[in-house]
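Please predict the structure of the following assembly.
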Amino acid sequence: MEEERRGGGEGVAEGVLYVKVMTDEQMEVLRRQISVYATICEQLVEMHKAVTAQQDSLAGMRLGSLYCDPLMTPGGHKITARQRWTPTPMQLQILESIFDQGNGTPSKQKIKEITLELSQHGQISETNVYNWFQNRRARSKRKQTAHLPNNSESEIEADDESPNEKKPKSEKHTHENLPRTDALSIRGTQTNSDVLSVDPEPNLRQGMYASNDSS
Amino acid sequence: MEEERRGGGEGVAEGVLYVKVMTDEQMEVLRRQISVYATICEQLVEMHKAVTAQQDSLAGMRLGSLYCDPLMTPGGHKITARQRWTPTPMQLQILESIFDQGNGTPSKQKIKEITLELSQHGQISETNVYNWFQNRRARSKRKQTAHLPNNSESEIEADDESPNEKKPKSEKHTHENLPRTDALSIRGTQTNSDVLSVDPEPNLRQGMYASNDSS
DNA sequence: TTCATATGAATGAATG
DNA sequence: CATTCATTCATATGAA
């Protein structure tokens, strides 16, 4: 599927000319920047849709066409694929055994040692190890949360913008959910004359960042 | 030539020896181009905001009906309901710019100003800003533990079966004064080319964070 | 192809 | 501030 991730070098008859024409860092930068204005463009599309919809109601004409089909979508950037680390079976085994030792919280020093150990079996970085443990613990904990809560109620979550509800997200968020809108939130809410009204309604918590005035 | 000028950091990642065909200058060119586009888009958004707002406010004379509820549904609860704040690209840009300014720890007063500024681009609270800076600093500092004093990685190792890569986050740069333009600040920076001089909303950035009155 | 899932990585928020 | 937690995003892989 992704054999053409480096589509830059076409015309190769035989052999996979496998060269990177940009460093990951460069690619990351570009990706970021492109993503920025791609999102903005998406907002523009939404606005245009809104505007044309108004006109539509007046003239009765319909011209709702999407004129924005970028090469990538904010939901899935297909610009580049960043390869991610994959532990070798050997590494995985070692990691698993360390994890099973109960020393659930490997400190930084541990991480270094483990990384050094694992680097004998393949490329690896401390970040990889760190992430692995983080994920391992988090996911093992989530598995336990699948305790068949048998919630007899049916909380009707009508607002499922995500049709795929396979992920067992039966967790319980014990914190207040702030009515957060998505990235392109400028289209909703008040597009009235009060578009730019600052809504300084911060969900200020108890402590915040400064209990007192440090001035 | 200058294909190896940039101290990107990585030259050989895994088995694959790749060359850098993009120079700093090329990169800079792309960056600036994208920056221009981003700025244009940003201004377009503002323009459309003004337009839609105007239409809406003039609905009494034009439409005469409150039919301005096409797709947005001001009270649309079904857009997305996330518990966690996610900065919009524009907000991110602004935050990054501020962060790169080296003004380090923003004081409480700064936070307020920044929050006010960012609220023009989406829902945000002071806590969000504070957390962002906290995380930003902490994580950028964690980018220093991946190199060994005598780590000669000039060797091309192709023995491993794990095609992986380090984690070069885009912000490898410490907040040192980069000679290049900052990460496209699509915000206040009035487009030098004055592409679309439509700025009917002077109150977009009233205070900004320029007013440094911290204690 | 498309969908579903596992999982590495990113990150906002919380805790010390 | 330094670490950790919790959640989400993105990608690799396999099944339908």
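Chain B touches chain A through 95 residues (CB under 8 Å). Residues 1-15, 60-81, 147-215 of chain B have pLDDT under 50 and may be disordered.
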